[in-house]
Amino acid sequence: MHVLITGAAGFIGQLLAKELLNDPSYTLVLTDINEPPIPADVKYPQNARTVTADLLKGANTMVDKSLDAVYAFHGIMSSGSEANFDLGMAVNVDATRNLLDALRATCPGVRVVYSSSQAVYGQPLPEVVDDSVIPTPQSSYGAEKIICETLINEYTRRSFINGFTLRFPTISVRPGRPTAAASSFLSGMIREPLNGEECLIPVEDRSFKSWLCSPKTLVYNLVLILSLSADSLPPHIRQINVPGICVTVQEMMDALAKVGGEGKLAFLKEKEDPTLRPILDSWPTRFDNTQAISLGFRRDSSFEQAVRDYQPNR
Q: Taking every annotated instance into account, which residue ranges of this chain make up the domain NAD-dependent epimerase/dehydratase (predicted)?
């Protein structure tokens, strides 16, 4: 299977590429605005090539008729989109439209997996969000994502592509450095203490809830989407809420203490951030994932296990 990954220099792009390059049946094109690395320690690095490209200037250099699937992971994250509206609209919306039009022209009907977010929702929300809840985003990032979800639905309805939209929970624990995402602390408060570094938590309420998914579970679900039948969803409703688990700040701190030791809690500092808090409060914290589970998606067993899965990879 020949697969294109945009935004391939990012965490999720690298995570998926590493998984696929351990299977000889996949060949990959990895593309980003800066040259993405081929993940280290994979069995078949020769099955990947890299393309440096700016989707705002077009997608022809990376799209060809041999493609079987495309993962669209490019974009500006939540707080970055809020800080710079024009950049967020350009990278998150215009670049996606350019990609979809190139695919429509060159390889019509190709499977496209678009990465969306729980940020498409905004308050007021029911205690548990199900597929009937209408997205009303309260951030530029969420608005940009819902625009692209509509494009995926329409291009699929018209048979230009075979699209699926995955609304990701917050992914934790991410390796690497903090990002421009409003949710970045939800990895940092585990990752940084385990590395002997401080992390600032931008909420002082330890009962604050988040909807989380581990990298290990995410990559399983990303690969699963390649095997779903095209008619597993209606042609004009292609979004799937990816399963997660609801975890409080206190429960995350408890997991850190159990895995890393009580001493790691000293690296956590709590200070309310009035800029980030409205964004964080707009996101839902519980979902009914009946649809996704019925399609074969998995959810994590516990956040403590997610921390233990991360620890050996520090």
A: 3-201
Annotated domain spans of the chain: 2-169+214-241
Q: Which residues are catalytic?
A: 141
pTM > 0.85: yes or no? yes
Confidence of residue 103 (pLDDT cuts 50, 70, 90): very high
For the domain covering 2-169+214-241, report its CATH number: 3.40.50.720
Calpha distance 154→114 (Å, rounded):
13
Q: How far apart are CA 306 and CA 302, in angstroms?
A: 7
Chain segment 84-101, per-residue pLDDT in tens: 999 999 999 999 999 999
